[in-house]
């Protein structure tokens, strides 16, 4: 873990899928990019083909998903539901890519990050010459909003520990710690799908949202059961997906965070506020440095059991 060099995809990747909210088919191209380009989205369906850097400063809304936009103007071009794709980039240590999308949201695929991870592993990853930068946390920092909180503490490597507490008996209380010492450690996180309560589905449909949502791309629960015929991929798939969202959102820092991250009942809004707070204190709390340790053996990950 911890690449010393920046990385991009070996070849362009084409993916298509349904947009969760619009219900329309969207086409996504992930294109290799030069060193220090970062991750940037391009709305190729709009006349000026506006670019949106994948950065916390561009966050436009965090209602049900993370949406970034060109500017704070309400009519500014945007891209929604970027978090699972961002988590795939984070987990595979991809620093530089151009993501072309022909609509206002990233396709939801199966509700997890696994289709993105598989597509990237299929074409392979290229190591570039420029050095990779990391944020190393020097002091503990915590942000609370009501009963929700997220904290980062100094550590030699990155770990995530998360807990959730839902009223639905199917979800209930779940907690999980993952030490991010290898890509393999994230395999079950990549595979975990987004979820919602059946009552929320009905409310969203009435509001004209989640038009593309189905049992094909989300776990739907009632108070007492999982409604998907195939059941869960993991008993604690819910907290695993919350961790996926957190990893994807925190990638919008612009460089990987090294530290022990702990969160309780966190979501996109808290993640966004946390990053903004980290930026404000960054001179005291964070330093952009080279990683201490070189990449260890990097065996390919296998997510064959998805098929
Ligand atoms: Zn999610």
Bound molecules: zinc ion
Strand order of the largest sheet: 2-3-9-4-5
H/E element sequence: EEEEEEEEHEHEEEEEEHEHEHEEHHE
Beta strand count: 20
Q: Compute the gyration radius: what is it? A: 18 Å
| Stretches with pLDDT under 50, minimum 5 residues | 294-307
Portion of residues in beta strands equals: 25-35%
- The helicity comes to 10-25%
Can you give keywords for this protein?
single chain; alpha+beta; 5-stranded mixed β-sheet; 7 helices; binds zinc ion
Set out the fold topology:
Layout: E1 5-9, E2 13-18, E3 25-32, E4 39-43, E5 51-53, E6 59-61, E7 67-69, E8 78-79, H1 83-91, E9 97-101, H2 114-123, E10 125-131, E11 134-137, E12 141-145, E13 148-153, E14 159-165, E15 173-179, H3 187-191, E16 195-197, H4 198-206, E17 219-221, H5 237-250, E18 257-258, E19 260-264, H6 268-280, H7 282-285, E20 286-289
Parallel strand pairs: 4-9, 11-18, 14-19, 16-17
Antiparallel strand pairs: 1-10, 2-3, 3-9, 4-5, 6-7, 7-8, 11-20, 12-13, 13-19, 14-15
Helix pairs in contact: 1-5, 5-6
This protein binds zinc ion.
Zinc ion binds next to α1 and α5.
Brief overview, please?
By secondary structure, the chain is of the alpha+beta class.
Describe the structure.
With 307 residues, the chain is α+β, with helices and mostly antiparallel strands. 21% of the residues lie in helices and 30% in strands. It is built from 7 helices and 20 strands. A hairpin with a 5-residue loop joins strand 6 and strand 7. The chain is globular, with a radius of gyration of 18 Å. The chain starts with a strand and ends in an 18-residue tail after the last strand. Residues 294-307 have low confidence and may be disordered. Zinc ion binds at residues 83-84, 194, 241, 245.
């Amino acid at each position: 873990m911890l690449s010393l060099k920046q990385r991009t995809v070996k070849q362009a990747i084409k993916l298509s899928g349904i947009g969760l909210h619009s219900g329309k088919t969207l086409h996504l191209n992930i294109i290799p990019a030069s060193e220090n380009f970062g991750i940037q989205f391009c709305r190729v369906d709009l006349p000026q083909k506006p670019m949106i850097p994948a950065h916390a400063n561009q966050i436009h809304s965090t209602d049900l998903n993370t949406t970034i936009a060109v500017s704070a103007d309400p009519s500014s071009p945007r891209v929604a539901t970027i978090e699972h794709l961002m988590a795939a980039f984070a987990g595979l240590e991809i620093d530089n890519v151009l993501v072309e999308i022909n609509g206002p949201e990233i396709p939801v695929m199966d509700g997890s990050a696994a289709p993105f991870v598989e597509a990237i592993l299929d074409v392979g990853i290229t190591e570039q010459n420029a050095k990779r930068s990391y944020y190393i946390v020097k002091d503990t920092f915590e942000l609370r909003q009501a009963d929700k909180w997220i904290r980062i503490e100094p550590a030699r490597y990155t770990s995530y520990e998360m807990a959730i507490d839902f009223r639905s008996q199917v979800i209930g209380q779940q907690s999980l710690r993952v030490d991010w010492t290898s890509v393999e450690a994230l395999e079950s996180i990549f595979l975990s799908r987004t979820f919602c309560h059946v009552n929320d589905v009905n409310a969203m449909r009435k509001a004209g949202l989640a038009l593309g949502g189905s049992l094909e791309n989300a776990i739907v629960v009632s108070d007492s059961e999982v409604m998907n015929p195939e059941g869960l991929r993991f008993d604690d798939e819910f907290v695993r997906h919350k961790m996926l969202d957190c990893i994807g959102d925190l990638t919008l820092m612009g460089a990987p965070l090294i530290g022990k991250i702990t969160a309780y009942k966190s979501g996109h809004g808290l993640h966004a506020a946390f990053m903004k707070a980290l930026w404000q204190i960054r001179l005291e709390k964070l330093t952009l440095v080279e990683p201490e340790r070189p990449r260890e053996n990097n065996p390919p990950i296998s997510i064959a059991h998805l098929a």
